[in-house]
Amino acid sequence: MSKEDICAHLGDDYDRYLGAIVPPIFQNSLFTRKTVNHGYSYTRMSNPTTEIAEKKIAALEEAEEARCFSSGMAAISAALMSVMEKDCHIVCPLNVYPPTKGFLDSYMTKFGVETTFVSGEKVEEFERALRPNTKAIYLETPLSNVFTLQDLRAVAELARSKGIATIVDNTWATPLYQNPIACGIDIVVHSASKYMGGHSDILAGVMVGSKERMEQVTHRERGLFGASMDPHQAWLLIRGLRTLPVRMRRHQESALRVASFLEAHPQVERVLYPGLPSHPQYELGRRQMSGYSGLLSFVPGGSREQIAGFVKSLRLFEEGPSWGGFESLINSPGLWLDEEASRRTGIPQGLLRISIGLENPDSLLEDLDQALASMKRL
Ligand SMILES: Cc1ncc(COP(=O)(O)O)c(C=O)c1O
């Protein structure tokens, strides 16, 4: 089944729901069993509306099963908890989504968990970091601020040979453009609050993997911590998934235009986007991704004050930290970093991150152009 058809129809089960082309929202916590046992009992464990989203996402990811969570962080922490043991060791890229890093290096330390952070660009870094008690290699590729990649197949092969679990945050590429399970990765997690939801109106998370792992996660991490998805959230997620393929095509086309425009602009020092042939890992990206999404970073030339002025003078880009919605956004992860903080975090000084939305791409280019022109006048 094609990915478009999965998004449009898979799991909708028209016969079961009276031919409803849009599935009903089972907005209930409890399923009674006095007369018929349908296999449902309590929405924290399973819900028919949530299951439709899970079927679609598992199929898109070429995985056996999926489980929805109340947010991306709920899925990420549950995935990590499912493979960690007390006093174990994890290897992870330094520039993962900051709360993921915080979960590992400030929260899990109270259970004796240690994490080694690497840049992640070379498989040898992961190999060197392994210890006898390493339980998982956690990846996020591309990293959603510096846009370097990790080699999914090479890391999966290394981890498998040592009996270590692998988890990948696949939010940036979406299951349309990257399928880590097919590369040998064990667990994929997503913040579905981004492209899958697509409208900046839900918080949602998903985990995918083997049937056995997902059944365990249902009873352990989802059942015990309780960060299940609400059925209404699942319904909005299904609605978002319907249009994911058309939206992603547009995000990709516009982002490629914006990245090329910025790269050619004399006021811009660097553009970080895996879709540009000048990206140092462009070939790796082509081997493991079939497309690119709409989030990228760049470093304008100029003082901090000039860069801050550039951000303020944008008219169409709103300022905010999230991404993956219909709206174009800018935020400034590197703007106020001094040299030491930039070295420690691996984030270039002056780095700005933009999420390219669904507005007219000509309007976005015009807006960036006028804001870059205003920098020269400061
Ligand atoms: C790459 C990445 N992973 C995970 C998350 C966490 O997702 P959520 O906000 O849905 O908890 C985010 C959120 O910004 C993210 O950017």
UniProtKB/TrEMBL annotation:
Keywords of the record: Aminotransferase, Pyridoxal phosphate, Transferase
Database matches in InterPro entries: Cys/Met-Metab_PyrdxlP-dep_enz, PyrdxlP-dep_Trfase, PyrdxlP-dep_Trfase_major, PyrdxlP-dep_Trfase_small
Residue numbers of N6-(pyridoxal phosphate)lysine PTMs: 194
EC number per UniProt: 4.4.1.2
Reactions this protein catalyses: L-methionine + H2O = methanethiol + 2-oxobutanoate + NH4(+); L-homocysteine + H2O = 2-oxobutanoate + hydrogen sulfide + NH4(+) + H(+)
Keyword Transferase part of the UniProt annotation: yes
Transferase listed as a keyword: yes
GO BP, one annotated term: transsulfuration
Cellular component, GO annotation: cytoplasm
Reported cofactor(s): pyridoxal 5'-phosphate
Gene3D superfamilies: Aspartate Aminotransferase, domain 1, Type I PLP-dependent aspartate aminotransferase-like (Major domain)
Recorded family membership: Belongs to the trans-sulfuration enzymes family.
Protein's recorded name: homocysteine desulfhydrase
Originating organism: Cohnella zeiphila
